[in-house]
From TrEMBL:
The keyword Disulfide bond applies. The lineage of its organism: Bacteria, Bacillati, Actinomycetota, Actinomycetes, Mycobacteriales. InterPro entries: AB_hydrolase_fold, Cutinase/axe. Belongs to the cutinase family. Keywords: Disulfide bond, Hydrolase, Membrane, Serine esterase, Transmembrane, Transmembrane helix. Pfam families: Cutinase (PF01083). This is Cutinase. It comes from the Bacteria. The keyword Secreted does not apply. It comes from Nocardia jinanensis. GO terms for molecular function: carboxylic ester hydrolase activity. The chain crosses the membrane at residues 12-35.
């Protein structure tokens, strides 16, 4: 009889152990999500200024033009000097921002390279790679860019802006440009001279109203965030295309994407939420692939102009022709 009673207790013990295991797994998953972080976008900006209250001059310390440069993944860090970035001397965006800084005096243009963590942890890596998640990195980049633009506009209401970003930085700049184009960004749309996005992960590949101007021959694919729209795993939220486009800014937003760069030229059906592990692994590897890192060699026109040369010439041209506001 005692053997029979002992035998009847075994299923209960197994079920208890299984329940404990399930609860432990749930706790691990919840902690995984919490530690990886959520994507948090800034709230609406001040929107357009009322015409009658517009100032007629601004402080002498204000630049005529403010250039915002947002580097890509692994090209910045949170503590970098925004006016003398040294986190990654090989940062692609330095090929764009340095020529602008060298061409003009500080009073004409201030070049601000947004310092942010700029990482992309692979959530399926084992052991963990020790990096910040895409959500954490992108949120910090968005917040710092948004806050700097807001503060600059409050201090310098007549300053105009040139915005440019690469890879993760292009997503950040593009998202802020979208808000500005809708009238609820950190600066008014009429203060923005132009925007260039290099390897934008939210590139839709579409043309028409609200869409950016393609530089060079556009590849057939879409941004990784469009191909993986709706995918949410710990630390990675794929937000899809910018459905409303760039609004008032669309006629001065440019996009550059090299064929075969999975960050902006992902085959529409190659990365799918149904294949989470494979898709996320491919995406993490795409950040460091040779095509993605060689835009300084990617030719965008018949004259042999590379993507970064084009962007630098574009920015220099905008700064050179920008208005010179009165200073007091």
């Amino acid at each position: 009889m005692s053997r029979g009673r002992t035998g009847r207790r075994r299923p209960g013990g197994c079920l208890t152990a299984l329940a404990v295991g399930v609860v432990g797994l749930v706790i691990v998953i919840v902690l995984w999500y919490l530690l990886a972080g959520c994507l948090r976008e800034p709230g609406p900006g001040p929107g357009p200024e009322p015409g009658p209250g517009e100032p007629t001059s601004q402080p002498a310390s204000c630049p005529d033009v403010q250039m915002i440069s947002v580097p890509g993944t692994w090209e910045s860090n949170s503590d970098d000097d925004p006016h003398n970035p040294v986190a990654n001397p090989a940062s692609l965006m330095l090929n764009v921002s340095n020529p602008v800084q060298e061409q003009f005096p500080a009073g004409r243009v201030d070049v601000y390279t947004v310092p942010y963590i700029a990482q992309f942890s692979n959530p399926v890596a084992f052991p963990p790679d020790g990096q910040a998640s895409y959500n954490v990195s992108r949120t910090e980049g968005m917040r710092r860019t948004f806050d700097f633009l807001t503060q600059r506009h409050q201090e310098c209401p007549l300053t105009t802006y040139v915005l440019a970003g690469f890879s993760q930085g292009a997503v950040i700049v593009g998202d802020i440009a979208e808000q500005i184009g809708k009238g609820n960004g950190p600066v008014p749309a009429d203060r923005v001279l132009g925007v260039t996005l290099i390897a934008d992960g939210r590139r839709s590949g579409e043309t028409g109203e609200g869409q950016p101007i393609q530089v060079g021959t556009p590849p057939p694919g879409v941004g990784a965030e469009v191909a993986l729209a709706g995918l949410t795993v710990p630390g990675i939220t794929m937000t899809g295309a910018r459905k409303e486009g760039f609004g008032e800014l669309a006629d001065r937003v440019y996009t550059i994407c090299a064929p075969g760069d999975l960050i902006c030229d992902a085959p529409r059906n190659a990365l799918t939420p149904a294949n989470i592990l494979g898709s996320v692994g491919t995406l993490a590897q795409a950040v460091g692939n040779p095509v993605h890192s060689l835009y300084h060699n990617f030719v965008v026109d018949p004259d042999g102009t590379t993507a970064t040369q084009w962007a630098a010439d574009w920015a220099v041209g905008l700064v050179g022709s920008a208005p010179t506001p009165p200073h007091s």
